[in-house]
Amino acid sequence: MRKRALVVGLGIAGMSAAIGLRRAGWTPVIVERAPERRTGGYFVALFPEGRQAAADLGIADHLHTRNPGREGSANSWSVDRRGRRRPALGFLDQPGGPAAVLRGDIEAALWQSITGVEVRFATSPVEITEGSAEVQVLLENADTQYRETFDLVVGADGMRSSVRRIVFGPHEEHLTTWNAMICAFQLKEQVPTYETSDSIIIARAKRAVWVFGLADHAPTALLTYRTRDIQEQFSGSRVERLRAVFSGMDDPVVRHVLDSLEEAPDHLFDSVHQVRMPRWSTGRVVLVGDAAWCMNLYSGMGATSSLRGGAALGAAVAEHPDDLAAALDAYETGLRPFITKHQRSARLKQQMFVPSSRRAEALRSVLVGLARRIRGRRLATEAGGPQVPALSGTSR
User: Residue limits of the FAD-binding domain (predicted)?
Assistant: First the structure.
């Protein structure tokens, strides 16, 4: 008989794991606590490892990317304390040539590829009990509770994973605190006086505003700031909280973003953490994506690692079809070096997103300016060499 896996979470990690397991000959069942599938979402970048994972999962042809122009043609601007606009390196100028997408673009591509997989909305696990040959799960929906047995449970239910809490212990044992907050959402329209696909960066000591330009979609915005009192940030109105945090940054970009937040139909507002665990599996329960490692937004690798994690889990169980313990060992051994590397680099990237002090802000400006000059010389050198066709980057 085909082995059955319960996948908890209908996000990027969950659907990737379901596809990977189905390709390995398993029958996945997905449960999602939300009443329906989420759409839209904020800007994310797909690095080469994420694009390779998308190809491995068979979703590359469904994945719509939104890079704003050919390399070197899209504008990114940095606004200084005097309101002066200067050319800058944007998020997509990082090594590896990341592809710009919305989170919903990846989820839509995955959704097209899980046709035939059973999905149960408004359903969550309450208890998980492991046996020698199976794992029993008490599931709950709006109407009732019922028990069901599976050969494997996959926790893909985010940074505050219920599967991780039930099986591995309280969140406090696994979440590292970064003393920072983020708010990400879609803008209805670009900041006035900027071109449609421009990206804008205002990085000040302990607070920053980013606008990510896209090729065929309104930009998305990120507000991020540092704070010692995380719990206080969740009290009262979020909009008023953010207006208070960014008061004094009297810039048209900041005003436009804050005004747009009041009209945004949906937004992500949360504290910043990473998940650190000595092992991502025990017995017949395994974690993937943010539930296992949560790179966090500063790393820029969340979507990439979630896709890669689902593909890696599927490949491991396919390689060890009759030995689940060996498969989970292979999954962890192969993936952990990649996760550890990018978790560590996220601390440096946090300084690039939101400097910790005026001195760090000044150092950031120097480093970005130097990197931009080096990149400019490289592009000039390449322009003088053999010409090759360039991809548009808007749909691949």
Answer: 5-341
